[in-house]
Amino acid sequence: MKSKIVVLDAYTLLRDDIKEWKSLESFGEVTIYDRTSPEDTSERIKGCEIVLTNKVVLTRRHFEETPNLRYIGILATGTNVVDLKAAREHGIVVTNIPAYSTESVAQTVFAHLFNVVNKVAYYNEQNHNGKWSACPDMCYLDFPFHELCSMTIGIVGLGNIGMRVAAIANAFGMKVNAFTSKSADILPAYINKCRLPDLYTSSDVISLHCPLTPDTEKMINKSSISLMKANAIVINTGRGPLVDEYDIAYALREKRIQAYCTDVMSVEPPHPDNPLFREKNAFITPHLGWATIEARMRLRDIADENITCFMKGCQINVVN
Each residue of 95-118: pLDDT tens digit? Predict the structure, then answer.
């Protein structure tokens, strides 16, 4: 008898460019939903042995109501959407998808950085409005700008993504500082391990790649911003709550830093009254850093591998 499988929120993974997940059908009877509300979750997982979720929360109550449930596949790296302790107590294996979006997120970091340094969006808008056509010279320059090789980047957290950002920065000739739990002995020679306050004071660009914990929540705040250079660019592709959005909006308004670039917000989707939307030097993308076609295909393939191994009894990427 085939397993009953449900995917609770497939929309962000399966768009027009990746329409199908045919390989799932080899594991059992599959139902795929674009989205699932909290009110619908219990009904949709009823009788299922395998549940796949991205952002739909699964709690102890769901496990108590679904005695057949044996496997939860989180379609992301973060595991906070599942009560891992309760799942373990109910004999439910939980897996995640590690390291699938490293290249995509690192690319997003530098997309934001180039947009700020080279003013790409600004000049494009000006030229569509006729400014270059009306220019008496072959070019015009509204702002001074610098080469990346003259800058220092401070990277907070050297996991897979942080290490990739460091390597790309080094390829551009940037000096690389990092705050990390890793021993300096195992780091590449081009990475300078330093204390967090020293990273803030010395860096032209600060890129956040650490996990969200009680210690890192709102680590970018009035106090840490006061240590930064006036031309500092803060880039957050990690977690929205790493930054106090009110404090950084105020810093932008007062020109305490040059720019805040983020792909993540403290609440997603963000409230329209979020103070960052009122700041012209806040550059915001809608949590798309993970979502290149290649990364989503990689995610789908790893999810298949996780289920295959679970069914064979040789589990991988288990988080509980």
Answer: 999 999 999 999 999 999 999 999
